[in-house]
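Hi everyone, sorry if this is the wrong subforum. Our group has a chain we'd like a structural model of before ordering constructs, and none of us has done structure prediction before. Sequence below.
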Amino acid sequence: MPFYEKGDIRIHYEEVGSGFPLLVIPGGGLNSTFAGLASHPFNPMEEFKGEYRVISADLRNANGGQSLGPLEIDRPWDAYSDDQLGLMDHLCIREFTVLGFCIGGPLIWNLLRRAPERIVAAVLAQPSGFRSEMPDLFYQNNIKGWGPALCARRPDITMEMVDAFLNKMYRNNADFVYTVTRDFVRNCQTPILVLPDDVPGHPYAVAMESVHLAPNAQVSLYPWKASKDQIPLAVRHVRTFLRAHRPAIAAHQAMAAAAQ
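Answer:
Right subforum, don't worry. Here is the predicted structure as tokens:
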């Protein structure tokens, strides 16, 4: 499998298929890896490789993955966005679509904040969000399910550093989708499609609020994954949405050639 390297950051990624680029952000919280896509409701690497250049990567410092880098305590969300945008730069990709599960929701909003001109459309599947009745959910999940294993294999990282990182990530801006404000979503012109969920880490209310706020938002049928018969309908909606917002192939090829 290939790696993208920049300084002391090493990102393990995979790409399949050809066509307009589709960046896939797996779920799994801070243990997000592209191998984990095999257990998702559907695997975009398989579903869309016949029509898109599908790219996915292990999140930096995910347990079970091979991406490594420093723990940037003061800018956790932006560090992950740096990796994703840097990977697309490494692959000479300027514009792309993005599909993210779970933690991919907040990460997509951060990408839209950081580089709105590069993302032509986004799909947020079972996105994470803040749940007021369980305000410390993500901190507690990660201080137990991510930090100890990370420290065990990385002697340069301590649990004190993990605590500071998670406080910055999930407690300092504990509201809505963590990475952007409601005003940002209200003014975001990028087409988005939301596939809502309703479990503790994927609050239905937050997913639907983002749909109502974003001016160019669509939402899938809900529930969309309660049975195996429903999932193909959701995948069809994703495919139709991505096709509708995919730039013309000729224009994309011209931009790719200019970037090289």
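For your construct planning: The chain is about 40% helix and 20% strand. The longest helix spans residues 76-90.
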